Task: structure prediction
Amino acid sequence: MAKKTKSKRDDTSQCEKCLPAYCCNYFAFGIDEPEDRRDYESLMWKIAHENVSIYIYRKDWYIMIHNRCNFLMPDNKCAIYDHRPYMCREHSTESCEYTGDDYGFTEHFKSYDDLLIYVKENTNFRFKQEPTGIPPNCL
Result:
């Protein structure tokens, strides 16, 4: 009888190592790369909201919403683990937020000021506003 080997992806103990449950505390999706001043102003408006960050990964732009999953229990385990959504089932711990070396982001804007400084240093768009000094509102 052949010995059944367990795939790392199917190993439920993999998540037990990550009690902060990083991957269950945000979601992100791709956005268009800003092309003009209005696009940057729109991103600055978005990042001014709580629990929002923006990042560039491999030249693509993303918005990250830092928001806890409703199924994450107080002990940071999934209440619907056996029936979790496809995105959760396919998430690999080999390069996850907890076990991976880093995200590999080219840029990660965690505050309005981060993005404002980037725009001032990397574009020809001139914004009179100086950094606000308000700290990031997400990790």
Summary: Confidence is low (pLDDT under 50) at residues 4-11. The beta strands are 27-31, 52-57, 60-65, 107-109.
